[in-house]
Structure formats: C-alpha cells, structure tokens
Amino acid sequence: MNDETREEVFWMIQDLHKKGWSITAIAEEMQVSWPTAKKYTEEIPKKQTRPTRKSKLDPHKDYLEQRIKEGTTNCEVLFDELRERGYTGKKTILKDYIKPFRKEPGKQGIPRYETEPGEQAQVDWMDCGIREMDGVRKRTYGFVITMSYSRKRYLCFTTDMKMDTFLRCMMQAFDYYGGIPQKILFDNMKTVVQQRLKKEIILTSEFNDFAFYYGFRVDLCQPGKPRTKGKVENSVKYVRNNFLQRRHEPSLEIWNYDALQWLSTVANANPNQTTGVAPDERFQEERGKLQPITGIKPYIVTKWEKRIVHDGYISVKSKRYSVPSRPLLKEVRIRWMDRETFEIWDNEQKITTYTVDTNPQKTVVYRSEHLPKIKGTPDEGDMGLATAPHVQKAPNVEVRSLDYYENLKEEESTLCKP
C-alpha cells in the first residue's frame, strides 16, 4: 500500500472500531492482518520514507556553489572542470542541479540572414571589464570575428580599441582564416565610421585605406540595430558564457594563447546550434571561396598622430613642414611608413609624403607648391631658413662713396654758421 491508500484504510478501520466491530471482524472486512487492524485502531500510520540516495555530484557541490557565485553556470565548462576533479557522473545530473541558477534565454526578434561561402564575415568588440593583467588592473577587450557561412570564429584580447590595435586584430584574423571575405559587416564603431549622413557614409581615411588595400567591401549595421549582425553577437555571448567562465592566468599573453586553444578544441570543433555542423568542418567549403592572402605584404600599421596646422605648417620632430594651403585645413594626421618617412593625411586622402630632414641647420622644410606664390619665395625645392618663406626682398639701395658723406657734412657745417 502507498501512503494515500494506507491513510484511507486507517480512517475506515477507525470508523468500524467506533461502531463496535471487533478486531477480527475488522481484519476480515478490510482484508488486512489482525496486527495491522489492531495497530490502526490505536494510532495513525506513519509515512514511510526511503533513505536518500547519494549522488555522484555530492562531493563536488561545494565547488559548484563557489563557481556559481563567481558567475559560472555553463554546464559544458563546469562538466570539464568536474571531470578534472574526478567526477564520474553524467552531464544530465549536473544540468538538473545548475538549471535553477540559470537565466532563461531571450527570444530572437530578427530574422536570420544566410550568406554564401566566403561572402561575409561579421566583426564586433566586447568589453570584458576591468581585470588584473600582468600585475596591473586594466580594462580588457575581446576582438571577435565570425565567418557568416561556417560560423568559424576568431578571438583575441587587447587592452584598448585604438585604430592600430584594431587593424592588427583584423590582420591576425585574415591570417587565421587563410584568406579574406568579400565583405565584412561592422556596427558604427569610431575606428570605421567618421560620419554618417542620410544618403552617405564617410569612413575614416585610415580604415578606408585598409579596406582598399585588402580588397574587401565594408558593410554597416543600421544605427540602433546591432542585432543585424546576429552571428557575431551570438559569438560574443558564447565567449562570455564559455571562455570567460573558465579560469585563466592573469596575463594578456596567456589569455590569447588560451583563446587559440579554446577555438581549436571547443568553439570551432563542437557542432553549431544553428547549422548542426562544427564550424571547422563547414569551413572546408568556405576556405576556397576566400580571397587569397598569400602574396599580400602585411599592411603597415602605425600609430596615427594628430597635428595642428599653423600658418600652413605642421611640427614634426622639432622641424616645421609645409602642407597645401587650404582655408579649411586646420588639422591633419600623420603616419610613419618607416623611421625616416611619414605621410600626411586629411580626413579623406593622403596629402603628401616627407622624408625626415636631418640637416641640423634647417628648421623649416618648405615646398613651393604648398603655398600661394609670393614675391621673394624660392621657385623650387625645400627652404632651410628659420624665417617664413613669404618674407619680401629688401628694396635696391644706391651705393655711394664715403667722400659723398664728407662733402655733405661740410655743407651742413657751413649752413649752420651765423
């Protein structure tokens, strides 16, 4: 008998006993033994409880509680960690234990857009918060790029999102994939978009030059709709819920090493939830569709420096270099091609290129084509004078002998006598 049936029999025996039935008559009527009938006339039957079975997860629950407090609820991550600690149970027990601590996933509100192999990649940054890296607390960022067809991901970590860092991450991704997609989708990040008008998008000159160099088209999300690049958004979420929940040594170099290992053994090796195929396997179809990167020299990535234009000149290494005369040219950017050569750019294009002048006597390097022709300026070449190039020549002066002045002095003396 289960607990419910047993309780029902008890109340029936109690009722018969109150009516004056004997124990033997009650036992025959209820088809129970005489001792049971006797016992139920005297006390309520207690519920029988089975002893609690021990779970293989029990020795690890303290560890799981600690990891949950740290924010780790990814069962794949925890299952790998528990196996290293000697856990021999199944993943199902772990999932049942972790389920109350996990948030329900949100619903997808934008239709998925599929592309052909090699057609598109999507790029995004993720903020990993302030973390201790190499003994210093720094804000850490993750650069994430995902091939839209295969979902093959690339991940690396930095401590800033500046232009030179961004371009290096892009080139590392091209090397990782072994090729370049036809187009790459970005949101409206400052390193990519300088200005967005109603009918025109102006890219930053640096990134426009980079895209032209590698031959890919730049696509941009609609403002306020980052979900239009949902594939890389999902990759960012995956990095947060999987890679960042694992334990890593507090070193940027080790984080990037761990990221490559994680990509090869987890992120790109396991089946994708949408395609049902591992990204590495599906990438085999995509590899041949990428633009080849072999034979392309690495793009020269340097730190871009701002320079204020003052009276038609900019200052570089304690010397003044002329720039083209334009009324609206108030600021330019320079980038070093090597230690001796630098380019000068405005917002859209390269203006000119200079080689650093090593003559210690020169403080001004001037090119006549940069300024309007003014009387007294050199016709061609660089000028090594410290003064401005538009100084007027002195007028011609008549040359006279000293006798002229002696005679003039005598005449003045005669005129002054009374």
From TrEMBL:
<dbReference type="GO" id="GO:0032196">
    <property type="term" value="P:transposition"/>
</dbReference>
<dbReference type="InterPro" id="IPR012337">
    <property type="entry name" value="RNaseH-like_sf"/>
</dbReference>
<feature type="domain" description="Integrase catalytic">
    <location>
        <begin position="113"/>
        <end position="287"/>
    </location>
</feature>
<dbReference type="GO" id="GO:0015074">
    <property type="term" value="P:DNA integration"/>
</dbReference>
<dbReference type="InterPro" id="IPR036397">
    <property type="entry name" value="RNaseH_sf"/>
</dbReference>
<dbReference type="Pfam" id="PF00665">
    <property type="entry name" value="rve"/>
</dbReference>
<dbReference type="InterPro" id="IPR001584">
    <property type="entry name" value="Integrase_cat-core"/>
</dbReference>
<protein>
    <submittedName>
        <fullName>IS21 family transposase</fullName>
    </submittedName>
</protein>
<keyword id="KW-0233">DNA recombination</keyword>
<dbReference type="GO" id="GO:0003677">
    <property type="term" value="F:DNA binding"/>
</dbReference>
<dbReference type="GO" id="GO:0006310">
    <property type="term" value="P:DNA recombination"/>
</dbReference>
<keyword id="KW-0815">Transposition</keyword>
<keyword id="KW-0238">DNA-binding</keyword>
<dbReference type="InterPro" id="IPR017894">
    <property type="entry name" value="HTH_IS21_transposase_type"/>
</dbReference>
<comment type="similarity">
    <text>Belongs to the transposase IS21/IS408/IS1162 family.</text>
</comment>
<feature type="domain" description="HTH IS21-type">
    <location>
        <begin position="8"/>
        <end position="68"/>
    </location>
</feature>
